C-alpha cells in the first residue's frame, strides 16, 4: 500500500526561484527596446519604397467613394467581366471600405502611416494569441519581422495580415463562438476562408458552422445603416465579373505559374483544377488527424482555392510554422522565411505549408486513446503537448 502512494512533490524554494529568474525583467525590457527600434527602422524603410501604400490607396479611394456616392466600387468592376491586377481596383466586400472611412479624415499620407502602425500592432497581437509556448510566440514575431510576405503586406498596406490574425483567433478559440465569428469576419476580405466552415461541417461541428453563419449575418446587418443593401449586391456582381486571372502580373496561382514556366495556355486549367483537387483532398485526409493539424491544413488550402494568389498571402505560413514548432519541429518556426524564394516557387511553398502539418506529432491523449472530446481543450494534465492557449 505504501509503495502505491505518490511521494509529495518537492516544494519550490522562492529564493532559489528568484535567483534563477532575476534576468527575466532585463531581457523583457531589452526585447521591447529591440522591437521598438526594429519597428522604427521598418517604418522608415518602407516609406522609401515604390510600393509604399500601393494597396491601401485602393481601400482609401473606395472609402471616399462610399462616402460620396454610397458605393465603394468602380464602374469597370460592375459593368462587365474584367481582369484583376490594375492599381486601384477594389475587390472586397463593403466592410473594409467602411472600416477605412475614419482614416480618410486624416488625409492620405497620415492615414497610410496610421494604417501601418495599426497592422504592426496587429502583427504583435497575432503572435501573442498563438496558442503555443511563449518561445514560439517570440520566435514567430521575430521571423515575421524579417520575412518577405509580412514585409510586402506591411509595405503595400494590404489586408493579408488581418486574414492571418483572424485565422489565429480561430485557432486559439477553435470550435468556440469566437472562432466562428473570426471566420465570418475573414470572409469579408477573403471569401475562400469559407472552406474553414466546410472543414467544420466535415467534422460535424455544427455549432461552429452556425456561429460562422450568425457572424456573417450580424456583420451584414450591422453594416446596413451605413452602406445599405446595394453595395452588398454589387459585391456579388464584382466577384462574378472577375475573369481571366491566369497570367495576371504577379498572380502566383498554379495556372499562372504553369503559364510562366512555358506550359501551353490550353493546359494551364489542368494545373488550376489540379490545385483545387489537391487542396480538397488534403483537407479530407486531415480528418484523420487532430483538429489543430486539420485547421492548419485548411487555412493553407484556402490559398490554393483562390483564383488569385499574391505573395503576401503567405503570411498564413505563421500558422503551420507555429503549430509544428510547438509540436517538436522547432525548425518550422522559420517557414515564413520561405517567402523570400523566387516567385515561381511560391505556389509550391503554399503546397509545402499545407502538407507539412502532417509531420506534427498528434496530441498524446489522442495517441493514448483516452477518449477526450476534441471540442474541449487538452490540458497539461492530459497530455505533454497542450492545445489550450498558453501565456
How would you characterize this protein structure?
The chain has one domain (35-368). The longest helix has 24 residues, at 24-47. The protein has helices at 14-20, 24-47, 54-69, 75-78, 94-100, 108-129, 134-144, 148-156, 160-172, 177-187, 194-202, 206-227, 230-241, 254-260, 268-285, 291-304, 318-326, 346-355, 364-368. It has 19 helices and no strands. By secondary structure, the protein is mainly alpha-helical. α3 (54-69) packs across α5 (94-100).
Coarse shape: globular
Q: Sketch the major β-sheet.
A: none
Structural class: mainly alpha
Query: From N to C, what is the helix and strand string?
Result: HHHHHHHHHHHHHHHHHHH
Strand content: under 5%
**Roughly how much helix do the residues carry, as a percent range?**
55-70%
Distance between the termini: 39 Å
Number of helical runs? Answer: 19
Average the pLDDT over all residues and give the rounded result.
84
Summed up, the domain count is: 1
Uncertain stretches: 1-7, 365-391
Rg over CA atoms, rounded to whole Å, is 23 Å
- How many beta-strand runs? 0
Amino acid at each position: 500500500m505504501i509503495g502505491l502512494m505518490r511521494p509529495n512533490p518537492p516544494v519550490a524554494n522562492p529564493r532559489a526561484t528568484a535567483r534563477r529568474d532575476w534576468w527575466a525583467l532585463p531581457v523583457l525590457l531589452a526585447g521591447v527596446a529591440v522591437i521598438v527600434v526594429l519597428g522604427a527602422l521598418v517604418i522608415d524603410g518602407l516609406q522609401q519604397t515604390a510600393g509604399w501604400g500601393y494597396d491601401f490607396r485602393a481601400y482609401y479611394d473606395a472609402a471616399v467613394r462610399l462616402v460620396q456616392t454610397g458605393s465603394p466600387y468602380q464602374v469597370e468592376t460592375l459593368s462587365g467581366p474584367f481582369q484583376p491586377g490594375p492599381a486601384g481596383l477594389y475587390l472586397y466586400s463593403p466592410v473594409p471600405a467602411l472600416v477605412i472611412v475614419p482614416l480618410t479624415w486624416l488625409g492620405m499620407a497620415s492615414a497610410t502611416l496610421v494604417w501601418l502602425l495599426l497592422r504592426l500592432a496587429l502583427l504583435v497581437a497575432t503572435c501573442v494569441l498563438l496558442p503555443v509556448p511563449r518561445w514560439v510566440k517570440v520566435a514567430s514575431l521575430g521571423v515575421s519581422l524579417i520575412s518577405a510576405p509580412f514585409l510586402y503586406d506591411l509595405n503595400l498596406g494590404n489586408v493579408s495580415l488581418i486574414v492571418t490574425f483572424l485565422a489565429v483567433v480561430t485557432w486559439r478559440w477553435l470550435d468556440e463562438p469566437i472562432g466562428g465569428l473570426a471566420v465570418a469576419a475573414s470572409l469579408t476580405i477573403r471569401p475562400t476562408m469559407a472552406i474553414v466552415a466546410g472543414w467544420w461541417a466535415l467534422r460535424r461541428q455544427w455549432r461552429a458552422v452556425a456561429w460562422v453563419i450568425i457572424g456573417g449575418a450580424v456583420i451584414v446587418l450591422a453594416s446596413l445603416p451605413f452602406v445599405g443593401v446595394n453595395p452588398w449586391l454589387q459585391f456579388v456582381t464584382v466577384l462574378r465579373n472577375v475573369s481571366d486571372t491566369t497570367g495576371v502580373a504577379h498572380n502566383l496561382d498554379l495556372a499562372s505559374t504553369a503559364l510562366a514556366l512555358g506550359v501551353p495556355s490550353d493546359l494551364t486549367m489542368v494545373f488550376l483544377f489540379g490545385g483545387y483537387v489537391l487542396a480538397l483532398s488534403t483537407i479530407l485526409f486531415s480528418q484523420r488527424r487532430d483538429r489543430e493539424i486539420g485547421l492548419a491544413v485548411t487555412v493553407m488550402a484556402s490559398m490554393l482555392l483562390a483564383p488569385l494568389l499574391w505573395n503576401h498571402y503567405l503570411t498564413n505560413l505563421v500558422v503551420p510554422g507555429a503549430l509544428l514548432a510547438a509540436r517538436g519541429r522547432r525548425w518550422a518556426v522559420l517557414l515564413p522565411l520561405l517567402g523570400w524564394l523566387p516567385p515561381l516557387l511560391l505556389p509550391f511553398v503554399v503546397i509545402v505549408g499545407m502538407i507539412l502539418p502532417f509531420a506534427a506529432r498528434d496530441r498524446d491523449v489522442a495517441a493514448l486513446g483516452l477518449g477526450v472530446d476534441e471540442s474541449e481543450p487538452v490540458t497539461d494534465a492530459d497530455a505533454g503537448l497542450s492545445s489550450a492557449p498558453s501565456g
